[in-house]
Amino acid sequence: MSKQILIVDDDPKIAQLIEIYLMNEGFSIIKASDGLRALELMDEEPVDLVILDIMMPGLDGLSVCLRIRENKTTPILMISAKDGDMDKITGLMTGADDYMVKPFNPLELVARVKSLLRRTYYQTQPKQQQADHIIHVQSLEIDKLTHKVMFEGRVIKLTPIEFSILHLLAGQPGRVFSSEDIFEMIWKEKYYETNNSVTVHMSRLRDKLEKEMEGEKLIHTVWGVGYKIEA
């Protein structure tokens, strides 16, 4: 079954352009021209990824993203004509997994959609093999097969990017990963110095973990070097 993408944009020309390119890659498409309709579709339809415009009348993209993140970890690719660093940071802090500036190359958008979907995909394996995919760190259980993170029996809801970062660090406890290491291993793209995606996602991840773990710090900063989880 093909993956279903929800396109949320009040500009019908942009929405149609995205739709054409994604349908050519075999994706199923549903569309919404406003934020409220987008939220309705999220409840009515199986959605594998959301392409979400920020600037829309009524309920804007940032508000929609926050509402989705209340109970869903569906990958979100945010698009906007705003190209400032703070605009990107704001988008990522609300829960988006990636951010693209208009006008964008449709082929690059398709590539990013595929990349986000790859990060959320896992292949079902026999139960006896599942233990090989579970990492225990302190009181935390990280299961790569189900993309679940558990703390004392409770699920900690993480986005696909947040899960990937946590799994990377937990898989090699004691090793310090620089922002460049993390970006290139998770995003599979070349890192550039002004890129703050790692910092933003790391901040959100740590906030969620510390909130659920009652203040217990799992990820440590090695100043001037990077991040690690203690062995």
TrEMBL record:
<dbReference type="Pfam" id="PF00072">
    <property type="entry name" value="Response_reg"/>
</dbReference>
<dbReference type="InterPro" id="IPR001867">
    <property type="entry name" value="OmpR/PhoB-type_DNA-bd"/>
</dbReference>
<feature type="domain" description="OmpR/PhoB-type">
    <location>
        <begin position="132"/>
        <end position="231"/>
    </location>
</feature>
<keyword id="KW-0804">Transcription</keyword>
<feature type="domain" description="Response regulatory">
    <location>
        <begin position="4"/>
        <end position="117"/>
    </location>
</feature>
<dbReference type="InterPro" id="IPR039420">
    <property type="entry name" value="WalR-like"/>
</dbReference>
<dbReference type="InterPro" id="IPR001789">
    <property type="entry name" value="Sig_transdc_resp-reg_receiver"/>
</dbReference>
<dbReference type="InterPro" id="IPR011006">
    <property type="entry name" value="CheY-like_superfamily"/>
</dbReference>
<keyword id="KW-0238">DNA-binding</keyword>
<keyword id="KW-0597">Phosphoprotein</keyword>
<dbReference type="InterPro" id="IPR036388">
    <property type="entry name" value="WH-like_DNA-bd_sf"/>
</dbReference>
<protein>
    <submittedName>
        <fullName>Response regulator transcription factor</fullName>
    </submittedName>
</protein>
<dbReference type="Pfam" id="PF00486">
    <property type="entry name" value="Trans_reg_C"/>
</dbReference>
<feature type="modified residue" description="4-aspartylphosphate">
    <location>
        <position position="53"/>
    </location>
</feature>
<feature type="DNA-binding region" description="OmpR/PhoB-type">
    <location>
        <begin position="132"/>
        <end position="231"/>
    </location>
</feature>
<keyword id="KW-0902">Two-component regulatory system</keyword>
<dbReference type="InterPro" id="IPR016032">
    <property type="entry name" value="Sig_transdc_resp-reg_C-effctor"/>
</dbReference>
<keyword id="KW-0805">Transcription regulation</keyword>
